[in-house]
UniProtKB/TrEMBL annotation, chain A:
Signal peptide feature range: none
BP GO terms, sorted: mitotic spindle organization
Keywords, in A-Z order: Cytoplasm, Cytoskeleton
Sequence similarity: Belongs to the dynactin subunits 5/6 family. Dynactin subunit 6 subfamily.
Known role: Part of the dynactin complex that activates the molecular motor dynein for ultra-processive transport along microtubules.
Subcellular location: Cytoplasm, Cytoskeleton
Any one GO MF annotation of this record: dynein complex binding
Protein name as catalogued: Dynactin subunit 6
GO cellular component entries: dynactin complex
From TrEMBL, chain B:
Start-end of Basic and acidic residues biased regions: 182-198
Protein name in the entry: Dynactin subunit 4
UniProtKB keywords: Acetylation, Coiled coil, Cytoplasm, Cytoskeleton, Isopeptide bond, Phosphoprotein, Ubl conjugation
Cell compartments where the protein resides: Cytoplasm, Cytoskeleton, Microtubule organizing center, Centrosome; Cytoplasm, Cytoskeleton, Stress fiber; Cytoplasm, Myofibril
Location of the region described as Disordered in the Swiss-Prot/TrEMBL record: 18-45, 177-198
Superkingdom assignment: Eukaryota
GO cellular component, one term: stress fiber
Listed transmembrane segments: none
Subunit relationships: Subunit of dynactin, a multiprotein complex part of a tripartite complex with dynein and a adapter, such as BICDL1, BICD2 or HOOK3. The dynactin complex is built around ACTR1A/ACTB filament and consists of an actin-related filament composed of a shoulder domain, a pointed end and a barbed end. Its length is defined by its flexible shoulder domain. The soulder is composed of 2 DCTN1 subunits, 4 DCTN2 and 2 DCTN3. The 4 DCNT2 (via N-terminus) bind the ACTR1A filament and act as molecular rulers to determine the length. The pointed end is important for binding dynein-dynactin cargo adapters.
Regions annotated as coiled coil: none
Protein family (similarity comment): Belongs to the dynactin subunit 4 family.
Organism: Apiosordaria backusii
Pfam families per UniProt: Dynactin_p62 (PF05502)
Presence of keyword Ribonucleoprotein: no
């Protein structure tokens, strides 16, 4: 908790501490950043990496079961509109949000089993279907609706994934979470 | 408008039309200079685009004492290698196996990412996902998977039995999983067909052809068609009576008949018009008329493709780059409608890359030679021009007196028309001899908007590029001697003087160029400003002279003379200085 700060930058203002609703089986690093005024729900067996930032200022954030939220992600970023909605971001089950991806607030929904690639940006109100793959640095404009099993390329191309390995992928995710749980020291008590 | 950083481009002498026209005397300095006075190099000429290079792109031939650009260099390939596995491919394999990696290196046909071999497990029937694996006992198949976009070769119906030698396995499989015909199978099938054909009467040949078209013609791939055609023509050539049906003279008139072809060739080669020997030998040949002879009727019924297009998205169709990156696949059905959809694209083996050595085309000496080992990026020989000819860097000079104090010169600032500006050109000497530099620039730049150019010090010497530490130790002597770093005297420090250099250092000299940019006001009847016509570019002729010791390597020329005698070398070339954009209106 009281680790020495090595950075010369001023400390990030913590903001208001949000009300949270955690399942008992989640893994959340204590350097994760949770701010905002609305409820943040994290369901069972999900993993929040260190320095992931969840901001519920613009609405509720719900993270499904067995999700992995990587480092330096920004979930619930208040976009250009700055609108406050009831639900800001909803992640389905088995969603992976990779490093430095950012998801804007405003009824944004990400479907089950979707992978949000490194450095991707998802605009406010976008609805991503189930088992989609967003390749690194994809940008989804606000309000876009992406059907299930879509592969989005960073150059705007898209393709339908016909492998039908959703179950296998979920199984892989479960195994990965099993490993991560051992690697990341969890401290949910800090946030409640 | 994007700011413009000053640049220096050097014209390779290989594209100099003057020296091309007059081979010998154009290289001598006096005539070249005389010639260039009335024939200034125009950097805006359309041809200039192809001869101007930054210094870093140029090489230098030590034997010809000449700059060599990428256009005047003979390349030869040292090694071929796969960029993915860095495996060196012997050039003998190239002829037999083509220019792609024949190991297990593949690119995703959709996104060009590297593909990896992954085993395909059967989907778990157990709802409990964390149950221990029993997959190890099962016989598994393998597929190629792109880790970037999750494309898998199972999407086009391709699976492999073994995780190794994917290239050989892929060559045998068609899209959809059907295996490609081997030569042996093809032979057997043909035998079967001919057997059937033998039973049928000649009169029923048309019916048989129709039948074989429906059965064999549809799935006839390129390889089979070629084999069938080859067999057919071989039999035609072997059979002397095949075309001897009394109409040989008529058949000669057709363009496709070999005898008329040979007659046309005779017309061009000047041989006899009618070669009696050839005529007697080659009768008219029949063309293939059935599928087993290699005839493939184009499948013009594309309704299935059209309906597939109706059902699919634009993004499901393959782009032309995707189609072009596909390797030729002989096991495919015929080209009609091939690979128009993403679903028909196959994994592409990596194209091989090369390491090349470069030779001077005149003296055949090697100018650049990479190390043969694929993994190393070093060069054994690399004679870059930057270590032989002085580099020129450009800086805007703001004189406190004229432009008001403290106006900082920002690179990329727009130049005020008709207001004199000063630029500092710094020449840096890379060689270990002192250089004598002579500059020549036209008084007015070529083009529609001539700017006035004055090189204040067109002739100067640059000291040798001696050892840095020697210089540091000698620094005290240098101070006392007359060659101070900056011209002495505080009152004359910021004054531009004609004929004097601005500043000098260990191996560099700065001089001042005064430019009066032209006004870009368009007069009536003039065309609009073209792209980049507002860029102020100065053509400048650089001639450098230096002396080298007539050492052992030039023993042939200096054998009779004194060994210690110094030899004079010179090099002259045009360069273009891009100074900045002129403000418009």
């Amino acid at each position: 908790m009281s680790s020495k700060r090595h950075s010369i930058l001023p400390a990030v203002s913590a903001g208001p501490k949000p009300p949270v609703h955690f399942s008992s089986s989640i893994t959340i690093a204590d350097s994760a950043l949770l701010t905002g005024t609305n409820l943040i729900t994290i369901s069972s067996e999900s993993v929040i990496h260190p320095r992931a930032k969840l901001d519920s200022l613009a609405g509720r954030i719900t993270i499904g079961r067995r999700c992995v939220v990587h480092e330096r992600t920004m979930i619930g970023a208040i976009g250009t509109s700055g609108k406050v909605t009831e639900t800001a971001v909803t992640l389905g089950d088995y969603v992976t949000v990779e490093v430095a991806a950012s998801i804007e607030a405003g009824n944004t929904i990400i479907g089950e089993g979707t992978t949000v690639g490194v450095g991707s940006k998802i605009g406010a109100g976008a609805v991503i279907g189930k088992h989609c793959t967003l390749t690194p640095h994809t940008e989804i404009p606000a309000g876009e609706v992406i059907p299930d099993f879509t592969v989005m390329y960073s150059n705007g191309m898209r393709r339908v994934d016909k492998r039908g390995v959703a179950d296998l992928k979920n199984k892989g995710q479960a195994r990965q979470i099993d490993v991560l749980r051992r690697m990341i020291p969890s401290n949910p008590a800090k946030f409640t | 408008m994007a700011p413009l950083n000053p640049y220096t481009y050097i014209q390779c002498p290989c594209s100099d039309s003057a020296s091309l026209g007059r081979p010998s005397d154009a290289t001598s300095p006096t005539s070249a200079e005389a010639d260039d006075e009335d024939n200034t190099f125009d950097p805006r000429a359309p041809r200039a685009n192809f001869s101007l290079y930054p210094l870093e792109y140029l090489l230098y031939c030590e034997d010809c004492h000449q700059i060599r650009c990428p256009r005047c260099i003979a390349e030869e390939i040292a090694t071929y290698f796969c960029p993915s596995c860095l495996f060196e491919v012997p050039s003998s394999n190239l002829k037999s196996e083509g220019n792609r990696c024949t190991r297990s290196c593949f690119q995703c046909p959709i996104c060009i990412g590297p593909l990896s071999v992954t085993s395909i497990e059967t989907p778990p029937s157990d709802p409990n996902l964390l149950a221990p694996d029993r997959a190890a006992t099962q016989h598994s198949t393998y597929s190629l998977i792109c880790s970037y976009c999750n494309w898998s070769s199972t999407e086009i119906g391709i699976q492999f039995d073994k995780p190794n030698s994917i290239h050989a396995q892929l060559a045998k499989i068609r899209n959809g999983g059907a295996s490609r015909l081997t030569a042996k199978e093809r032979k057997e099938r043909r035998k079967e067909l001919s057997h059937r054909g033998g039973e049928a009467a000649v009169a029923a040949a048309a019916a048989a052809a129709a039948a074989s078209e429906t059965s064999g013609g549809q799935d006839m791939d390129l390889e089979t068609q070629f084999a069938n055609l080859k067999l057919f023509y071989n039999s035609q050539l072997a059979d002397p009576n095949a075309g001897d049906n009394g109409f040989s003279s008529l058949g000669d008139l057709g363009f496709s008949s070999p005898s008329s072809l040979s007659r046309i060739m005779n017309l061009y080669t000047g041989g006899k018009l009618h070669d009696p020997r050839a005529k007697s030998k080659l009768g008219a040949m029949r063309e293939a008329i059935t599928a087993d002879e290699g005839l493939l009727e184009p499948d013009l019924d594309e309704s299935s493709l059209i309906s597939q297009l109706h059902r699919s998205d634009f993004l499901d169709t393959a782009s032309s780059t995707q189609v072009c990156s596909q390797p030729p696949n002989l096991g495919e059905p015929h080209l009609h409608g091939a690979a128009r959809f993403n679903s028909s694209l196959r994994p592409a083996p990596y194209l091989l890359r090369t390491k090349r050595s470069k030779r001077c085309p005149v003296c055949r000496h090697i100018i650049s030679k990479p190390e043969a080992k694929v993994q190393t990026t070093r060069f054994r020989i690399r004679l870059v021009a930057g270590s032989y000819i002085p580099s020129i860097s450009i800086r805007r000079l703001n004189l406190p007196g004229s432009n008001g104090p403290g106006a900082p010169a920002i690179l990329g600032d727009l130049l005020e028309p008709l207001k004199p500006v000063h630029f500092l050109l710094t020449f840096k000497n890379p060689i270990f001899e002192s250089l004598k530099v002579t500059l020549g620039a036209p008084a007015k730049t070529p083009g529609r908007f001539p700017s006035k150019v004055t090189v204040l010090c067109p002739q100067f010497d640059i000291d040798a590029n001696t050892d840095v530490w020697d210089e540091a130790l000698k620094d005290n002597d240098r101070e006392s001697s007359g060659r101070s770093r900056r011209r002495a005297g505080t009152e004359s420090q910021f004054q531009v003087e004609v004929g004097k250099i601005w500043e000098r250092g260990r191996n560099w000299v700065s001089i001042v160029v005064e430019v009066v940019p032209a006004s870009l006001k368009l007069e009536q009847g003039q065309d609009l400003l073209k792209e980049d016509e507002d860029v102020l570019e100065i053509p400048m002729f650089v001639r450098i002279e230096w002396e080298v010791e007539n050492g052992g390597d030039d023993a042939t020329t200096g054998s009779g003379r004194d060994k210690d005698q110094k030899e004079k070398r010179e090099l002259a070339y045009w360069c273009v200085l891009g100074l900045g954009r002129i403000k418009q209106g």
